[in-house]
Design brief:
The chain is α/β, with parallel strands linked by helices and 221 residues long. Helices cover 23% and strands 10% of the residues. The chain contains six helices and five strands; from the N terminus they run ββαβαβαβααα. It has a five-stranded parallel sheet, with helices on one face.
């Protein structure tokens, strides 16, 4: 099995890492969402070939039970997976939950991974996530031999962010929140709003999200 390259060149490469796209997502054997709510745990265990190592994977902050609905969830069907739907920032609680964890999957910057926490996780070998990682103590990971692998998805269009940006622009120009509030209070209409046609679009910065906005703007003409 090929090593999974890390975006942090100072860190060692974990030779047992998954070569089929990493450990960012997991899925139950039926492909169905079965993640319990709140602090209940989801454990998925499947029989593996004799001698195969079953990795203990923990996924934090899956607020809306979305991980188990992803197609890539099945990539860890041979391992033991624990999904947490709540958010905890108390180190003692996190250390207790992650005591046996070998692979920790994070959803963006939702949980701070400090040196104080890492030093209490003796089995941890890999932290996997997507995008930037200011919430992870990289120096502590280096010292403890923990690989941090984060897909920076450079050049990948951010369609969702662009769509939400335009949703906010349209809601503002057309006064949608105010009109909805008025309608709920029994008032049919409280204004006519403004059109976007002929207006000038100003873009601050030109990253992955902003690059999608002009195309949407042209389609609105």
């Amino acid at each position: 099995m090929d090593a999974w390259r890390t975006s942090c060149p100072k860190l060692p490469v974990w030779e047992d890492a998954n070569d089929r796209g990493g450990l960012v997502c997991v899925q139950n054997r039926n492909g169905q969402s079965s993640v319990p709510r709140n602090t209940e745990q989801l454990r998925i265990k499947e029989e593996t070939q004799a001698g195969a190592h079953v990795v203990k994977v923990s996924i934090l902050d899956d607020y809306f039970d979305t991980i188990s609905t992803l197609t890539c969830f099945r990539k860890l069907h041979e391992h033991e997976v624990e999904v947490w739907n709540d958010h905890v920032d108390v180190i003692d609680v996190l250390a207790d939950r992650l005591q046996r964890t070998e692979v920790l999957v994070l959803i963006r910057e939702r949980t701070k991974i400090s040196a104080a926490l890492l030093e209490r996780l003796p089995k941890l070998k890999l932290i996997s996530q997507r995008s930037v990682y200011p919430h992870i103590d990289i120096e502590a990971c280096t010292r403890l031999g923990i690989v941090v692998s984060s897909g920076m998805h450079a050049g990948t269009p951010s369609y969702a962010a662009a769509e939400l940006t335009w949703a906010l622009v349209l809601a503002s120009m057309r006064q949608i929140p105010q009109q909805m509030a008025a309608l709920k209070s029994g008032i049919w209409q409280r204004g006519v709003g403004r059109t976007l046609r002929g207006q000038t679009l100003g873009i601050y910065g030109y990253g992955r999200s902003e690059k999608q906005s002009p195309g949407t703007e042209r389609r609105l003409e």
